[in-house]
């Protein structure tokens, strides 16, 4: 029996929008999107997986049809982790599941995977183009003064790729760009630079861009400057788009010390792998989930 249901879920004082598709009796997969996207970035991957799994995805706070807090502090990791717990507790209460996340969805999901809030329920974690900020903080500390081994150059290259992170810290600047019409230009950018040939304008894009920058403001600098030890409590797979313009492969170099079972999977595509290579992403997820179904 295949279903497609919409859910409105309470998390603290916010309401989150979520969807569940597939057979409720099948293994649940939870998909978390990044910035400046909403749950629809997973449309193609969901089509590939919903025949064999119960696929749950939701709009994170500040995106899509979910509530959009106006304060920066409302976007801190602890609240994002609480949102994920609220979603799974409402839709698949008590059930174990496999977690798959992209971009900021992956960054925030590391918080749950490494803090034990859902320990025992997350059977595996697949992250695409979204490192743990604490891990990055430690990597920068280790590499920034490693002139002879090339570590300094790696850090500088990654900082250059992540130039937008600092721009997002400037009050009102990114919001002004989205309000001035960046949402209209965004599909053209995705077509030209990210190989998303079918990119189309979305009426939600302006709000997704405006509010989502608070994810960066609430978390990035504090995490990088004051990282905490974060060890994953489940098997981890990292899918690495080899032509990712924002997140470099070097950020996985020390990841094995923070994970038990680690699988690295390269994919010849750009940053938005769930859109450009949905079949390959779905295949990697399916194989990893099958290998760790009883973990």
Strand-helix topology:
Layout: E1 3-11, E2 14-22, E3 28-32, H1 43-49, E4 54-58, H2 77-91, E5 97-102, H3 104-115, E6 122-128, H4 133-143, H5 151-161, H6 163-167, H7 173-193, H8 205-225, E7 236-241, E8 262-267, H9 273-276, H10 278-291
Helix pairs in contact: 1-10, 2-3, 4-8, 7-8
3D shape = globular
Question: CA-to-CA gap between the ends?
Answer: 26 Å
Class by SSE composition = alpha/beta
**SSE order:** EEEHEHEHEHHHHHEEHH
The low-confidence parts are none
**Spatial strand sequence of the major β-sheet:** 1-2-4-3-5-6-7-8
Percentage of residues in DSSP E strands: 15-25%
State the total count of DSSP E strands.
Answer: 8
Number of helices: 10
Q: What's the alpha carbon Rg, rounded to whole Å?
A: 18 Å
Question: How much helix, percentage-wise, in residues?
Answer: 40-55%
Average pLDDT number = 95
Largest sheet: 8 strands, mixed
Features of this protein?
295 residues, alpha/beta, 10 helices, 41% helix
Give an overview in words.
This protein has ten helices and eight strands. The mean pLDDT is 95. It is of the alpha/beta class and 295 residues long. The radius of gyration is 18 Å and the shape is globular. An eight-stranded mixed β-sheet has the order 1-2-4-3-5-6-7-8, sandwiched between helices. Helix 2 (77-91) packs across helix 3. A hairpin with a 2-residue loop joins strand 1 (3-11) and strand 2.
